[in-house]
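subagent[fold] <- orchestrator: predict structure for attached chain, return C-alpha cells only, no commentary.
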Amino acid sequence: MLSTFGAREKAMYEIEINDKSYQVAPKSQKLNTGLINGNPYEIDFIKVKEGEYHLLYNNKSYNVELIKFLEDKKHMELLVNGNKYTVAVKDEFDALLENLGLDMSLGGAEKELKAPMPGLVVDVLVEVGQELKDGEPVLILEAMKMENVLKATGDVKVKSIEVTKGRAVEKNQVLVNFE
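subagent[fold] -> orchestrator:
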C-alpha cells in the first residue's frame, strides 16, 4: 500500500497510525524489509483480493481491509483483524515542506484559500458560484519552479476569486473565498 504513495528505495517515511508515529525506512521497493524506529522488520504480505491483504509480522497473522484511501492526502483507513486504524504517511518532501511552513492543502473546509507560499498564479480553475467537492482543483500556483495544484479539502461554494491568471502572490494572501 505504501508503494501506491510512491515508495522509493533508501527513503524514510513518517507513518502515523492512530496518532502514534513511526519512522520507517524500507530496504527495497517491495517494502517487506527495513527498519521501524531503528529496529529491523520483515513482513510477508499477499493481496487476497482488491482492497484485502493478509500479513505475517513477528509470527502473527493479520487480515487487513482497505476501507478508505485518499492518495493525494497520503491517508488511509484500515480494518486490521476487526480493529479500525487511521494511517497517514509523510515522506522527506512532505517533512521539508512542513519544516518550511509550506502547507499544500487548504486545511479543512475553510472560508478562504490562501497562498501556501509566494508564487505565480498559473491558472484559476473555478468560477464564482461553482460548487466544489473535497479534492477538486481550485487553482494552479507556480512556486519553487514547480506547479502546485491547490485543491478544496471540503465541500465548498466559490464566493469570490481574488486573483487572476499571471498574477504574483505572497504567502498567506487570500486567493479564493468560499461560502
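orchestrator: received. Logging for downstream: The longest helix spans residues 92-99. Confidence is low (pLDDT under 50) at residues 1-9, 104-108.
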